[in-house]
Design a protein that fits this description.
The structure holds 2 protein chains of 2 kinds. Chain A is an all-beta fold. Helices cover 0% and strands 58% of the residues of chain A. Chain A is globular. Chain A starts with a strand and ends with a strand. Chain B is mainly beta. In chain B, strands 2, 4, 5, 6, 9, 10 and 11 form a 7-stranded mixed sheet that branches. Classes of the chains: A mainly beta, B mainly beta. At the A-B interface, strand 4, strand 5, strand 9 and strand 10 of A face strand 10 of B.
């Protein structure tokens, strides 16, 4: 069965303290892995798409990487405005997105 | 207006009411989606429309009825809902429903069923 698991469920960091969020997946025929950011009371905001193992993408303090079993979202020197829930979704052979439950990130000043 | 818009942003309805949620996308996309988001649970895909044709219905109860009159507009008609239907309802769009296309989301409608 296709499955996506995100860890940790919640992460509290001090401002400037770098860390990583994990998205592990078991799907047949990966067609894409997507990262989104969601602020309270808002819809998810698209961040990155990764298509194949070894691929990396960066945007400001965020860097996403992909292996054959998992993806990491690395956050370097985070600021309070990076606080949000980060969602991971995988698109497999069936084309529907399979979503993880998210990681709630809190950055304290 | 830009991106994906949804109205209303908040809705409180009784179990016997009938209401509709509206979504409009200004991105020139051909696929539109309805999702349900409940606290601490993954997004649940409800319906998919590709070029105005419904391509997915993920075993959604008949009290939810979608309508897609054109590629820019999507509605979700609600009737005789249950308290467990209270959630954030998100609309999204993408270039098509095929492989590798990212989805763009609206702000959602927070629905409370009393």
């Amino acid at each position: 069965e296709d499955q996506v698991t995100q860890s940790p469920e919640a992460l509290r960091l001090q401002e400037g303290e770098s860390s990583s969020l994990n998205c592990s997946y078991t799907v047949s025929g990966l067609r894409g892995l997507f990262w989104y950011r969601q602020d309270p009371g808002k819809g998810p905001e698209f961040l990155f798409t990764l298509y194949s193992a070894g691929e990396e993408k960066e945007k400001e303090r965020l860097k996403a990487t992909l292996t054959k079993k998992e993806s990491f979202l690395h956050i370097t020197a985070p600021k309070p405005e990076d606080s949000a829930t980060y969602l991971c979704a995988v698109q497999a052979a069936g084309y529907q997105l399979i979503w993880g439950a998210g990681t709630k990130l809190i950055i304290k000043p | 207006e830009t991106g994906v818009t949804q109205t209303p942003r908040h809705l409180v309805m009784g179990m016997t009411n009938k209401k509709s949620l509206k979504c409009e996308q200004h991105l020139g996309h051909n696929a539109m989606y309805w999702y349900k988001q409940s606290a601490k649970k993954p997004l649940e895909l409800m319906f998919v429309y590709n070029f105005k044709e419904q391509t997915e219905n993920n075993s959604v109860p008949s009290r939810f009825s979608p309508e897609c009159p054109n590629s820019s507009h999507l509605f979700l008609h609600l009737h005789t809902l249950q308290p467990e239907d209270s959630a954030l309802y998100l609309c999204a769009s993408s270039q098509t429903s095929g492989s590798g296309y990212e989805q763009y989301f609206g702000p959602g409608t927070r629905l409370t069923v009393t």
